[in-house]
Amino acid sequence: MNIKTAFFLAFTSLKRGNKGTLAMTILIMTLAYINIVFISSVFGGIVDAINTQSIDNQYSNIVIEPEIDEKYITNTRAINSIKTIPGVIGVSAHYIDKPFVKYDERKDNKDVKTGNWVLKSIDVADEKKVTKIHEAIVAGSYLEDNDRDQIIIGREVAGNYGGSLRHLSLNVLIGDEIDLSFKNGIKRTYTVKGIFGTKSTSVDQMLFITKKEMESVLNVHNLASEVLIKIEDTGNEDYYINEIRHLGLVHEDIKKWSDLMGFTSSASMSFAMISIILGVIGTIVAGVTIFIIIFVSVVNKRRQIGILKAIGMGDNTIILYFVIQALFYGIVGVILGASFILFVLRPYFMSNPLDFPVGWVSLKVTFDIIRISNISLITAALIGGFFPAYRGAKESILKSIWG
Amino acid sequence: MIIEVKNLKKTYEGKVPTHALKNINFNIKKGEFIALMGRSGSGKSTLLHQLGLLDRPSAGKIMIDGTNLMSFSKEQGSKFRLEKLGYVFQSYALLPELTALESVYLPLMLSNIDKKIYIKTASEMLKKVGLGNKLHNLPRELSGGEQQRVAIARALVNNPIILFADEPTANLDSESSKVILELFKKLNKEINQTIIMVTHEPDDKKYVDRVIWLKDGEIQEED
Ligand SMILES: Nc1ncnc2c1ncn2[C@@H]1O[C@H](COP(=O)(O)OP(=O)(O)OP(=O)(O)O)[C@@H](O)[C@H]1O
Ligand SMILES: [Mg+2]
Questions:
Q1: Which residues, 6+ apart, have CB-to-CB distance to A140 below 8 Å?
Q2: Helices and strands (H and E) in chain B: how many
Q3: Is B109–A309 a contact, with Cβ atoms under 8 angstroms apart?
Q4: CB neighbourhood size of B40 (10 A)
Q5: N or C: which end of chain B has fewer CB within 10 A?
Q6: Chain A interface residues (partner B, CB cutoff 8 A)
Q7: pLDDT at B90 over 90
Q8: Using CA atoms, how far apart are residues B152 and B148, in angstroms rounded to an integer?
Q9: How far apart are CA B97 and CA B195, in angstroms?
Q10: CB A152 within 8 A of CB A196
Q11: How far apart are CA A215 and CA A30, in angstroms?
Q12: CB A178 within 8 A of CB A157
């Protein structure tokens, strides 16, 4: 095999051959590449948005729940020590109740709206370090530490701010009064102070009051139904869980956000599947395109192949001559495609993210996606180029020259 | 003897097998300029293909420069063609994307010769065939006769021990044909180049040392 001659012939062909064909081929390769990367990146972006949503508004990074058959986490000392672990940004303890909620608009016991929703209590300062619900207020304002008869509610409960479950809502506005009957039988009336709208339907079906208020209702002090923990380095939850266990929270149920996602994580799995399938199809299309282009080139150059063989060029050099051209198409496609993704599409979607129900979605172009796509497209070009080249090179000289 | 052919047979298999070469025996000495003549279909091209390792005989033996061609593997054949044989085909078998110079240095490049040397050697060879001023022309920028001379330069650039030519002037006008035949004659005289040329033109006889006549796949007479 004479590599130098193969390169020489391949690049002369590319240089002096039909420019239109060359441009079209490179365009197809570039589009095939963008197709593969774009789909994976959009799905990656969606999954990221779902994850961010869950971390920001629902679970934070780590959730501690009471040990089995216990109502509260009682090891207050350990809970208070969590924030001393380096890397922990915030710790927020919640009480949870599921009161019966009633809104009687004209106070005449007619046309009363009711429902059962999850009510959580928060320490306002702690909570702001752990979730971003305070940034999602769509009407009114967030709770303050001394609020007692004030409540903030999700838009799915309120019903007037773009939720998707309006028919089940209370249909209330800021300043309206709603009645809560707690599980322990206590009844209290609250004024709606704020309405929040995250992109998580389950969060938007919650109600929040202050910790002080809840402790007076439940008649408890410094306990917690759940504790949310925000850490510096998402992805490193296992390390922190281990540290937390060492503080003495041995039997409590400690989970990271991804374990709690259930439905959404299976959705991410489906997205991953879809992007693999589409990626494989895209790669095959690219491979077949290269196959056709090299096949046509081999057919057109049949006589030339015969002549090259007649003057003593080996079959392998001839195969390499065509494979180099195929590789060139693949590599240029990868370079142009990757540049377009990284320098055009990604910046564009960064500044203009797509508004998905799960959150703002932009492209998540990871090193892995780029690497796998590079390898796939170049391998497709290699295989697509090899087979027609092999067939052409193995034909007998006389057949090649005279048909 | 540079070529020795013994009991050479070539049959094209098919529904009706064609016995293109029946029982060929002849010898060619180094430095001879041979014309292969005969009617259309008599087996001239077939014989040239067997001698030039472009095809495999059905039976018999061909020795070139003391080497038995039958013993070659595909790769060895390829190497032998590159290093020892030169071809000129009927229609100018050039690669349309290569300039005259590139076409001619291609065999040298394949032989892993240094770039400086192959450019120099190829340029000189093109000068010898009278194309010193057309080194960078593509085939479409050359006349038929010029293209055929590029093909001849390419065939000769590796100093082959035998030059094969299958009706090299068939597509050329008489003026260009004359240039080619004179060139062959000159090469034959000056560097003692062995040449075997298939031709239809009875007039070409005056250029050659000897004519081998073929009829229905057999050698009819030599003169
Ligand atoms: N590939 C082939 N398959 C089958 N038969 C063939 C093949 N090539 C040549 N023949 C037959 O072999 C015989 C000799 O053909 P060849 O081409 O050698 O003749 P030629 O003397 O070169 O004729 P021409 O002067 O027309 O070129 C002819 O009968 C031809 O039909
Ligand atoms: Mg012929």
A1: A152, A174, A175, A192, A193, A194, A195
A2: 6, 10
A3: no
A4: 7
A5: C
A6: 2, 4-5, 8-9, 12-13, 15-17, 303-304, 307-315, 317, 396-398, 401
A7: no
A8: 6
A9: 28
A10: yes
A11: 62
A12: no
Strand-pair partners of A209: A121
pLDDT digits (tens, 9 = 90+) for A170-226: 999 999 999 999 999 999 999 999 999 998 888 999 999 999 999 999 999 999 999
Q: Which two tokens stand for residue B70?
A: 């039958």
Task: Say which residues have a Cβ less than 8 Å from residue A107's Cβ, sequence separation at least 6.
Answer: none
Alpha-carbon gap, residue B143 to A143, rounded angstroms? 92
Name the residue type at position A24: M
Query: What is the residue-wise DSSP string for A83-102?
Result: GGSTTEEEEEEE-EE--EEE
Element (H, E) at B67: strand B67-68
Q: Which CATH class is domain B3-222?
A: alpha beta
User: How far apart are the C-alpha atoms of B105 and A9, rounded to whole Å?
Assistant: 12
Closest C-alpha among B46, B52, B70 to residue B60? B70
Q: Which of A323, A340, A320 is nearest to A381 (CA)?
A: A323
User: Is the distance from CB of A390 to CB of A319 less than 8 angstroms?
Assistant: yes
Give the gyration radius of chain A's Cα atoms.
32
Give the integer Cα–Cα distance in Å for A99 and B101.
92
Residue B36: what are its φ and ψ, rounded to 5°? -105, 115
Give me the residues of chain A with pLDDT under 50, please.
none
Torsion angle, alpha carbons of B23, B43, B168, B150, to 10: -70
ipTM score: 0.93
Q: 């948005």: which residue's tokens? A: A49
CA of B12 to the centre of ligand 2 (A): 15
